[in-house]
Amino acid sequence: MTAHTKTQLDFSAAIGTAMAMMREPTNTVFDAGNCPVRDVFSHIGDKWASLILQTLGLRPHRFGELKRAIPDISQAMLTGTLRSLQRDGLVDREVFPTQPPSVEYRLTELGQSLLGPVAALVVWTAEHHGRIREARVLYDAENPPAKKKVAAA
């Protein structure tokens, strides 16, 4: 079995579980405070978290290496996202007793288990990005932005 096939099977199983949950709507599924999808996606669903996860999936990185690997992320956003991923148990932070101290970030076992689904999304995005951009152009052509009304003086 190839890694791609395993990813597809893992994803199919996850979708099946999610669909089963949706067939039996409960407060756990739709309640913002209890919905596992909302809870987790609010942390891993943004562009910075996915880029950090992909980068750390290659190998452990020090903070500066992560900053260089993702050049358009601010230092504050990188720090905050790393803390969030660490809080969720997806990333480990190791401080080395050097002068000055150096810190290395790596994926935990839980974080590594997320790489398959993230990779599937990356592959899907690469395959369909052109079609999405075309759809946006068509939509924008058919739905021009509303002109702002000028207030009477």
TrEMBL record:
Residue span, HTH hxlR-type domain = 35-133
At the top level, the lineage of the source is: Bacteria
Q: What PROSITE patterns does UniProt report for this protein, alphabetically?
A: HTH_HXLR
List GO molecular-function terms, semicolon-separated: DNA binding
Q: Which keywords does UniProt give here?
A: DNA-binding, Transcription, Transcription regulation
Q: Which Pfam families match?
A: HxlR
Transcription listed as a keyword: yes
Q: What is this protein called?
A: DNA-binding HxlR family transcriptional regulator
